[in-house]
Amino acid sequence: MEAAGARARAAARRRGRRLRAPATLKEQRDPQPGGRLPQRRIEEDQEEAVFREVVSFTPDPLPVRYYDKDTTKPISFYLSSLEELLAWTPNVEDGFNVALGPPECRQPPLSSRRPRTLMCHDMMGGYLDDKFIQGSAAQNPYSFYHWQYIDIFVYFSHHMVTIPPVGWTNAAHRHGVCVLGTFITEWKEGERLCEAFLAGDERSYQAVARQLVLIAQFFRFDGWLINIENSLSLAAVGNVPHFLRYLTTQLHQQVPRGLVLWYDSVVSSGQLTWQDELNEHNRVFFDSCDGFFTNYNWREEHLERMLGQAGERLADVYVGVDVFARGNVVGGRFHTDKSLELIRKHGFSVALFAPGWVYECLEKGDFFQNQDKFWSLLERYLPTHSICSLPFVTSFCLGMGTRRVCYGQEEAVGPWYHLSAQEIQPLFGEHRLEGDGRGWVKMHCCLEDAWNGGSSLLIRGLIPPEVGNVSVRLFSLQVPVPPKVFLSMVYKLEGPSAVGVALELTTGDAGSCHVGGISSLSETSSRRSPRPLRVPPTKLAKWVGRCGQQLSGGWVQRCYEVNLRGCLLQALFVNFSRPPGSQEEENFVCRLGEIQVVDANSLLTPLPQVQAVTVSQVRWQPAASEGESGPAGLWLSCTLHWAYLLPHVRCFRIHCCRGSGGDSPCRGLSEPEKPTLLGLAFVNRYRIVDLAVAPAEPGRDGHVEFLVEPIPKEGFLVPRAEWGRAAMLYSTPRT
Questions:
Q1: Is residue 633 within 8 Å of residue 693, measured between CB atoms?
Q2: Distance between CA atoms of residues 63 and 366, nearest Å
Q3: CB within 10 Å: which end of the chain, N or C, has fewer?
Q4: What are the CA-CA distances from residue 243 to residues 84, 248, 301, 337 (Å)?
Q5: What pLDDT score was predicted for residue 509?
Q6: Which pLDDT does position 577 carry in this prediction?
Q7: How far does CA 109 lie from the centroid of its chain?
Q8: pLDDT confidence of residue 660
Q9: Model-level pTM?
Q10: Strand arrangement, sheet containing 611-622
Q11: Which one, of 133, 101, 711, 715, lies nearest residue 418 by Cα?
């Protein structure tokens, strides 16, 4: 899938339609495949189920496809053969790999005729640190965060069926970007495989197509890039258009806004001959699916010829650009803009292949600077898309960090990487005042400090003496304004700067809505509560509880109420104004920790509770003793399942408390233990791996309690009484 004949590297990703709301209670209580029967439940009430376990060091093995063989951590996977593809059926173990939901609403929709931007992620064979569904401790991993510039994300690898790792699907969908997996055949083995399913009657290729649709539907990704890079017999190539039409039709029926794209490789005669354009030799494949991805060695005359071939479907032609600049290409690397200039001149979409070049080939220590440079050079050719739904909440977390922070409180120190935890990213870049003014504002992602997650948005700027303020657009929006909206901003200024910091909204027909004209919700100043909310419900009380206060770590939260009717929110800015009386040049450094835009009505709905938490697939291992005489400790691994309506949730935070005896260590009568954060989940299950617990004393049970904390989409912490709970009592075998 490289420049004319050179083959490349790799990666994978996926999405599917629905995984039975949350997993059904029956499913959660049934025995789990690959493990022993769930532990005997010895008591149960509405709050907590208790399971009993006898420690044993002979666990049943877990399926290697779904779990890392060394750690038993859940992993994303691919399928390597036609036999594996045809044999695949949804399994309870597949539940870890299911995306949280479909792509968020965005404008313009992908179906518009505006030229699109496709990013094809191919990196070192694929399934690297991104395969660990619950995250890893990777240092300096690859991260992509310029989502507002792209429309389609393809996870590419050289495995036959590349199912995108769920972290990529969750991150892309959060930004309204659709995700495609890759179906690829290559070399002599590819010829054999294609002959097996394409050269016969329709039943063979329809069976393959149905499986591809089922996989996309189940895992909640959005379709497939079809890449046949081997010669085909006349019988096989004759069935390719039928295969593409059947696959495309079935996908459209089962996956809303699903896409099937064809890569420029074989031609209608069955020969493997890259054309670098759409022409009469490959037009039949273009006519049979949603789009055509050209090879990379084109010139402007290829683009001119394609105008007649594409007709009204210019946006469905994705002109390939190899960022590594292999072969005879117009431009790649930091000259990729030369290629985009020509592509956009003729009105085509673009397919950027392997923009991870900035990570693979340049200094890792300069990755963020190089990535920002690469995308800033392309910015003028990359139209952005807008967010069009509420609530809109982001802490600017990249899904990685050197520590974990929860609302200003440090929870853990050490590197972490979890793609599903990436939050909505802004429009990065540098913005300068028009005219001769010297004012400027520049935004960077920053791992040095965070309010919630692992990073924050660092904004540097200068207010020249001749102007009173500078603004920078953070997000493009297309959101119909509900009757009442609450906004919140968490920020802090670095150093002695006294510049004013405020949110600014623009609307479709009411001009600008500045903070000065918006009612402020503050605990320390005269605050006007919304009239219908004389006694704020639980959600609103949690939401405004910190408003106007100085928070830990120097952070400040400001909250506002907006009342606008018949308007459309079009953009969200942050405005920096010079201090009163100042006539000097003002430099400033500001960190944004969180932005929230919430429909007030959503805060009136009751909070659902996490229910039916179960424990299964238990594995015990002995841990080395800390002392010569003391008993050796234990490492506990197990799987939690629970019931919760996923459309309500942003994520789940999984905690534990460890103790002994029958009393709950999290709710002890003396001093209850503070729960320890174990990790984040984005489905109704979580695999706990190698949790250190104390050995059970003779005649006395060990006790570990697990807590499942839901984080609502509005982005606040819920009371612990609404968390899900399950406890495990464990004992040593009787002798």
A1: yes
A2: 39
A3: C
A4: 19, 8, 31, 36
A5: 62
A6: 92
A7: 19
A8: 64
A9: 0.89
A10: 611-622, 634-643, 685-693
A11: 133
Q: Quote the DSSP letter at residue 4.
A: G
The whole-number pLDDT of residue 39 equals: 43
Can you say whether residue 236 is alpha, beta or left, with left for phi > 0 and alpha for psi between -120 and 50 degrees?
alpha
Structural element, H or E, at residue 724: strand 724-731
- What are the backbone dihedrals phi and psi of residue 71, each rounded to the nearest 5 degrees, phi first? -115, -15
The pLDDT tens digits of the residues spanning 441-471 come to: 999 999 999 999 999 999 999 998 888 889 8
CB 180 within 8 A of CB 154: yes
Amino acid at 112: S
The identity of residue 596, as a single letter, is: Q
Identity of the amino acid at 406? C
504-555 pLDDT, tens digit per residue, is: 888 876 444 433 334 444 433 222 222 223 334 455 665 566 676 778 888 9
**Which portions of the chain are predicted below pLDDT 50?**
2-46, 510-537, 627-629, 669
How many Å apart are CA 540 and CA 551, to the nearest integer? 19
User: And the tokens for 500?
Assistant: 């004013």
Phi/psi-derived region of residue 257, left when phi > 0, alpha when psi is between -120 and 50, beta in every other case: left
Kindly report each contact of residues 200-203 with a partner whose C-beta sits within 8 Å and lies 24 or more positions away, as own/partner: 202/239, 202/242, 202/246
Please answer whether residues 678 and 557 qualify as being in contact, where contact means their C-beta atoms are separated by less than 8 angstroms. no
- Structure-block tokens of residue 276: 């670098």
Q: How far is 184 from 180, CA to CA, in rounded Å?
A: 13
pLDDT given at position 15: 30
The dihedral region occupied by 270, where left means phi > 0, alpha psi between -120 and 50, and beta the remainder, is: left
